[in-house]
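In this supplementary section we document a worked example of the pipeline. Step one takes a protein sequence of length 315 as its only input; no multiple sequence alignment statistics are reported here. Step two produces a three-dimensional model, which step three serialises into structure tokens for compact storage. The input and output of this example are shown verbatim.
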Amino acid sequence: MVYYPYIRGKQFELIALRDMCSFIENKNIISPIIEPIKEINSTIIKTIESLKSYGINFSIILNPQEGTIKSSEYTGLIDAVRVEIGEYENYQPAFIIDESISLTEINSYVEKYRLRNISLVINQIPRDENEFEKLLLSGSIGCVLLRDDDSAVRRLGRWVKGVEKVLLAERFNVKVRNADYANPDDEPFTDDHLFYSKEGYTGFSDYLTIGNIYKEGGFSPYAVAIHLTYLTDDHKIRIHHFVSDSNDDYEDVPGKFKEALAKLIQFIDEEKMQTMACNQFRQIEKEGSYPGLGSLKKLSILNHIELVYRFFAGI
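The serialised model returned by step three reads:
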């Protein structure tokens, strides 16, 4: 696999993965990482079913660090995921590794279930070096995702042998207010897809057009911002922010959306962008409808995944 989009288990993020399945023909490019934020529910079950039915490779984090599932209470999640996965072969259980993680519990899981390769998302080097070394040498680790912003984690990648090594990086420039994305409204996003292999990685990962900062719920915004990545002539990926103009209060969110959408439509038509998400934006503009803020996030995610997929599929 080449690209490992990191998805939190919110409703519209999971729906984006379901929509993604329809354009993934080459199954060796995209492998989503899903961090559940709630107990297994109908939304994530439908997503798992879609990924399985299309033969998509994916991982589910079994000790999530955000949302309502705490890392010390993940036994039920493990059992629930195993029921839904069944005998599906293109799935890898995944665990987050940081200073606070109980490696004894993870090693116990690895010893109990040796039939699958395990993926590790290494955010920090854990304190228990002996248990960590035991885990790395267990023979069950198939892939490690290494956080780019931690120097110790990057050094770890130099001596971990015999596993897939994936660069995990935060590339979305998170700002306090939606209105702040108007300045600048266009900025670099990533060139990891061009250089990951030259830097010793077998793949790369990011938090898409959302960022790594987790927020529980939404609220009526003063400004509506739509974030869309696009490929430049030199094959780098930039991101454009389409921000509404009437941002003095939180009234008339649908009107703010139409202001942002008009800018987006002009941009994607000029750039001749034909991703599934861009065509859905065109349909929304044609109908004059307001799909809701969750759908904007879904389309932004979907566009980014398809952009990366098309690059590696040569489309």
